Automatic annotation (TrEMBL):
The protein's name: Molybdenum cofactor biosynthesis protein B
Taxon lineage: Bacteria, Pseudomonadati, Acidobacteriota, Terriglobia, Terriglobales
Known function: May be involved in the biosynthesis of molybdopterin.
Associated pathway: Cofactor biosynthesis; molybdopterin biosynthesis
PANTHER family referenced in this protein's UniProt entry, alphabetically: MOLYBDENUM COFACTOR BIOSYNTHESIS PROTEIN B (PTHR43232:SF2)
Alphabetical list of SMART domains matching this protein: MoCF_biosynth
InterPro entries: MoaB, MoaB/Mog-like_dom_sf, MoaB/Mog_dom
Superkingdom, taxonomy of origin: Bacteria
One Pfam family named in its UniProt record: MoCF_biosynth
Family, similarity comment: Belongs to the MoaB/Mog family.
Keywords (A to Z) from UniProt: Molybdenum cofactor biosynthesis
Transmembrane stretches, start-end: none
Length: 184
């Protein structure tokens, strides 16, 4: 298993229940990329930090469902990680196992995430959007999102969906305010 980037402390919460700055973990799933060529992971980590959150852990794993699930479980158990976002392994080839690994740890799926992502993708890439098995969900008190591995898909998912779901002042769309209640 890849060693994640060292964890940084979360920013203090305004109301002691929801951190002002959420802790994100970034997972790249690829049989072909290395740390120095992980452009989609770099884009995601940069956007997380630019939004005022913390990219507190990062790993790159091969397309191996057991290893992916193990990494997810480790991050789900960590109190400073509120959101895990992966890039890669959501296609339809035999090696694409990220959705299966995610479903092995999810307690609740958020089908609307994948639906909205594919709708946005359809406007940009047409029918190729049906090849994406992007998904979102919850495991214990951690949100999990699996994105395709392309730079464009990562930009679209962050810029058009995820940044809004975790932005301060985003009203009833803000998933961060639900974190204390996820294990009710």
């Amino acid at each position: 298993m890849a060693d994640p980037t060292p964890l940084a402390p979360a920013a203090p919460a305004a109301d002691d229940t929801v951190p002002a700055s959420l802790g994100f973990a970034v997972l790249t799933v690829s049989d072909t990329r290395a740390a120095e060529t992980d452009s989609s992971g770099d884009i995601l980590a940069d956007r997380i930090r630019a939004a005022g959150h913390q990219a507190v852990a990062r790993a790159l794993l091969r397309d191996d469902a057991v290893a992916i699930s193990a990494q997810l479980r480790e991050w789900i158990a960590h109190p400073r990680i509120h959101v895990v976002v992966s890039t890669g392994g959501t296609g339809v080839t035999g090696r694409d196992v990220t959705p299966e690994a995610f479903r092995a740890v999810l307690t609740k799926e958020l089908p609307g995430f994948g639906e909205v992502f594919r709708a946005l993708s359809f406007r940009k890439i047409g029918l190729a959007a049906i090849q994406s098995r992007a998904l979102g969900g919850v495991a214990e008190n951690t949100y999990l999102f699996a994105l395709p591995g392309s730079n464009g898909a990562v930009r679209d998912a962050w810029d058009d969906i995820l940044s809004h779901l975790f932005a301060p002042g985003s009203g009833n769309c803000n998933l961060a305010v639900l974190i204390p209640r996820l294990e009710e």
